[in-house]
Write a structure and sequence with these properties.
- It is a single chain.
- The chain has two domains: 4-57 and 261-410, no CATH class; 72-247, no CATH class.
- By secondary structure, the chain is α+β, with helices and mostly antiparallel strands.
- The two termini are 34 Å apart.
- It has a six-stranded mixed barrel with strand order 2-3-7-4-6-5.
- The model has no long low-confidence stretch (mean pLDDT 80).
- It has helices at 4-14, 21-62, 79-88, 121-124, 128-133, 151-157, 197-200, 208-215, 234-244, 254-257, 259-297, 299-307, 312-343, 345-356, 363-366, 377-403, 407-410; strands spanning 66-70, 92-106, 111-118, 146-150, 164-175, 178-192, 203-206, 223-228, 249-253.
- Helices cover 57% and strands 18% of the residues.
Length: 414
């Protein structure tokens, strides 16, 4: 496609001489701008993807894809049969009965609002995220009047393993003097860390039978969490479950309960892509500036080449190769930096935190304890294609201008 003469001339024009130092500086800025733009775009998109994927894995590792919730005052009295029937359906992996209630938890040092989840020990071991979070806890001892508290919540309460906390539920017994809150002390047998601040700072787990006894639900449950084999079957499985539940219950899935949050992530991700693409566009304009100045500086050389028989196409291809080389090299360097940064992003974060002495990724704000990054090959290819397209388009006008140079006009005063 490109003759040896064209490649040799283009390469010679790229090498800066002393009088062309300013042009070389502009070219260097263009190359640096493209590399930084591509790297930044890959890093930001990967972090956004990793944040969304990690958050989704945590949410689905703690909760099910579909939740069947009993209406107030109508708990699931036949939840064991319902769980058995649900797990027989092809496509359903797990069906876990739960009791979830909000209440006040107090210690000798503090009081906090919390969410209590009643669940059996064997059901905790069925999910990897839960199993890892409870790794330091003896599940065999998870029976009776005991609780497991999130490690962040334990710090807020100022309690440790072996201490007692008091659970206070406003929905207590009805007496002649009105409603009396339920108050009961429980022993902490361990703390968990699920990697999500929302759960680690607000949740208390207790045995299912203990929760039934505390809330006066006898042999009942308030929620049945359903986990699927394949998340793509969610619409079909939800419709199937909705047909089978009674009017005293309602069904919702993880997308519905987290819709606003994940929509915000998607919008932010798309906006960041457009904003960072402007960095690459600015760098592409630097290519135009550098090549126009190069054409102006090499006008005499171009005129000599034209008088020696070089065609307009040859001149255009020479300067097109100059701009394309800057674009390809800048894109390659940017991709390499971006991928290297993504694969070591947590180590880089820890290093920057040690230097600055500040928390750069607060779990209280971002819900996760580690900075995730997930490289999407399709997105990387899209970034490469868009960047190269912008760079190639940026070379067309300077190359066309060089090909239109009149040899007689260029050599008139030589």
């Amino acid at each position: 496609m490109f003759a040896k003469f064209e490649r040799m001339t283009a390469w010679r024009y790229l090498r800066a001489k002393r009088k062309e130092g300013f042009i070389s500086v502009i070219t260097g800025f263009a190359l640096t701008g493209i590399a930084l733009g591509v790297a930044t775009l890959i890093i930001v998109m990967s972090v956004m993807n990793g944040f969304k994927a990690e958050l989704l894995n945590r949410i689905l590792g703690i909760n099910g894809h579909i939740s069947i919730v009993a209406s107030a005052g109508f708990p699931f009295n036949n939840y064991k049969q319902a769980v058995s029937e649900l797990e027989k359906i092809d496509g359903i992996d797990l069906a876990i009965p739960l009791i979830e209630k909000q209440l006040l938890v107090s210690s000798p040092h503090a009081a906090e609002g919390a969410m209590v989840r009643g669940i059996s020990g064997e059901d905790i071991l069925k999910k990897k995220v839960m199993r890892d979070g409870f790794a330091q806890i003896d599940i065999d001892g998870f029976v009776g009047d005991v609780v497991v508290v999130g490690d962040k919540l334990a710090k807020k309460l100022g309690v440790y393993v072996g201490d007692e906390i008091t659970l206070i539920s406003p929905n207590g017994k009805i007496t002649a003097f009105g409603s009396v809150p339920r108050i009961k002390a429980y022993t902490i047998i361990g703390t968990f860390n699920l990697g999500m601040y929302e759960y680690d700072a607000n949740y208390i787990f207790m045995p299912l039978d203990g929760a039934q006894k505390y809330f006066g639900l006898k042999d009942s449950a308030t929620v049945i969490d359903v986990s699927l084999h394949d998340e793509k079957q969610l619409p079909m499985m939800r419709a199937l479950i909705e047909k089978t539940v009674s009017l005293d219950a309602y069904v919702y899935d993880w997308k519905e309960s987290n819709a606003a949050f994940f929509n915000a992530i998607d919008v932010e991700r798309n906006v960041m892509f457009l904003i960072l693409l402007l960095i690459i566009l600015v760098a592409a304009f630097n290519i135009i500036t550098g090549l126009i100045m190069l054409v102006k500086d090499k006008s005499r050389d171009v005129a000599v080449l034209r008088t020696m028989g070089a065609t307009k196409g040859m001149i255009m291809r020479i300067f097109f190769m100059d701009g394309a080389f800057i674009g390809v090299l800048g894109t390659s360097v940017g991709v390499a930096i971006g991928l290297l940064f993504c694969h070591n992003i947590e180590n880089i974060r820890q290093f920057l935190q040690r230097i600055s002495g500040r928390d750069l990724f607060s779990s209280e704000i971002y819900f996760l304890s580690q900075l995730p990054a997930k490289v999407d090959e399709y997105e990387v290819v899209c970034v490469i294609v868009v960047t190269l397209l912008l760079c190639f388009l940026a070379t067309l006008y300077p190359a066309y201008r060089a090909s239109k140079l009149d040899p007689a006009e260029a050599l008139r005063y030589e």
